[in-house]
């Protein structure tokens, strides 16, 4: 009887996580919620990144901390940190900046769905600041590598109904203490936590770590809450981005596995090559996933 109750409780938790991550169909392209990580356009401002994201044909954007606001306001950094008013940090000035970005998103019909990679502090007040920002902007997923803060932010995940994805950077041969590259490690961190805490699956960094993304996704089945989808020109630590479907990362296999698992996103195009002029390449990624959807 006890085991049945435990199973029922687990099912309720899973259902809660699914509900928290549901997306309307009008945000989907090719069956997935896909858009650009603003880091793709990190040589530019937030406003320019939103413009470029709209030009790719995607419908969403993932912001990162500290990008300059606009060409006219390059000294203002966008994110969860407060903005300085005339002579001090000012809540009203901060909200004014956030509202400007929300207005720009509405103008371009782009939806902010994720934010990262962001450090989440271990102190409750600092962590809450990140979640308050996400709630105000309508962001559904925070992507981080702050494993040490999980006990702090798990209650906030439940309170705000905002997911947290643990992001993976490549394996560091000279730093054995860095474990985020290993999906087995990520699984060990998240498997007994609230189901809204999971993996931000960066497929390109898995390739750079000598792993096969589809294998990693299967290891993390049921625990992927967001993805930075990349295709690389070579299976090397120095492999650079190419448009999806043109490299070695098996993007079709990745999308097939995501579909099998019922993961629809958010997926971010994080294109870290030709960043002075990579709009056409980012658009080619969006076109790939749209074409993928028409074939299913």
How would the blueprint of this fold be written?
Layout: H1 2-20, E1 28-29, E2 32-37, H2 46-56, E3 60-63, E4 67-68, E5 77-78, H3 91-108, E6 111-116, H4 124-137, E7 141-144, H5 150-160, E8 163-167, H6 183-190, E9 197-202, H7 203-208, H8 213-219, E10 224-229, H9 251-261, E11 267-269, H10 279-294
Parallel strand pairs: 2-3, 2-11, 3-6, 6-7, 7-8, 8-9, 9-10, 10-11
Antiparallel strand pairs: 1-2, 4-5
Structure, described:
With 296 residues, this protein is α/β, with parallel strands linked by helices. Helices cover 41% and strands 16% of the residues. The chain has a single domain (2-294), classed as TIM Barrel (Alpha-Beta Barrel), CATH 3.20.20. It has an 8-stranded parallel β-barrel, surrounded by 4 helices. Strands 4-5 form a two-stranded antiparallel sheet. Helix 6 links the parallel strand 8 (163-167) and strand 9. Helix 2 packs parallel to helix 10.
| Class derived from helix and strand content | alpha/beta
**Under the CATH scheme, which class?**
Alpha Beta
User: What is the count of structural domains?
Assistant: 1
Q: Please state the CA-atom Rg, rounded to the nearest Å.
A: 19 Å
Q: Determine the number of helices (DSSP H or I, runs of at least 4 residues).
A: 10
Which stretches are low in confidence, meaning pLDDT under 50 for 5 or more residues running?
1-20
Q: How many strands, which pairing sense, and closed or not: the largest β-sheet?
A: 8 strands, parallel, barrel
Taken in chain order, the helices and strands follow as HEEHEEEHEHEHEHEHHEHEH
- What is the name of the CATH superfamily? Divalent-metal-dependent TIM barrel enzymes
Number of strands: 11
Output the CATH topology.
TIM Barrel
Q: Indicate the overall shape.
A: globular
């Amino acid at each position: 009887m006890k085991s049945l109750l435990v199973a029922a409780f687990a099912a309720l938790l899973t259902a809660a996580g699914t509900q928290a991550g549901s997306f309307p169909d009008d945000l989907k392209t090719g069956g997935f919620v896909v858009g650009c990580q603003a880091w793709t356009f990190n040589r530019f401002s937030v406003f320019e990144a939103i413009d470029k994201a709209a030009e790719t044909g995607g419908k969403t954007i993932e912001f990162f901390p500290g990008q300059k606001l606009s060409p006219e306001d390059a000294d203002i950094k966008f994110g969860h940190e407060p903005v300085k008013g005339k002579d001090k940090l000012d809540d009203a000035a901060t909200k004014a900046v956030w509202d400007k970005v929300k207005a720009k998103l509405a103008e371009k019909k782009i939806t902010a769905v994720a934010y990262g990679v962001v450090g989440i502090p271990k102190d409750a007040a600092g962590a809450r600041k990140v979640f308050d920002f996400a709630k105000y902007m309508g962001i559904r997923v925070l992507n981080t590598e702050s494993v040490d803060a999980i006990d702090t932010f798990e209650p906030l995940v439940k309170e705000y109904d905002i997911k947290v994805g643990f992001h993976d950077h490549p394996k560091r041969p000279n730093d054995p203490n860095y474990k985020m590259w290993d999906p087995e490690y990520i699984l060990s961190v998240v498997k007994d936590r609230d189901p809204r805490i999971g993996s931000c699956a960066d497929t390109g960094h898995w390739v750079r770590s000598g792993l096969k993304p589809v294998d990693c996704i299967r290891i993390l089945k049921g625990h992927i809450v967001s993805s930075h989808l990349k295709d690389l020109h070579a299976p090397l630590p120095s492999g650079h981005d190419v448009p999806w479907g043109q490299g070695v990362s098996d993007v079709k296999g990745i999308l097939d596995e995501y579909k099998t698992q019922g993961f629809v996103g958010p997926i971010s195009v994080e294109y870290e090559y030709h960043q002075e002029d990579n709009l056409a390449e980012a658009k080619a990624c969006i076109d790939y996933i749209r074409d993928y959807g028409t074939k299913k």
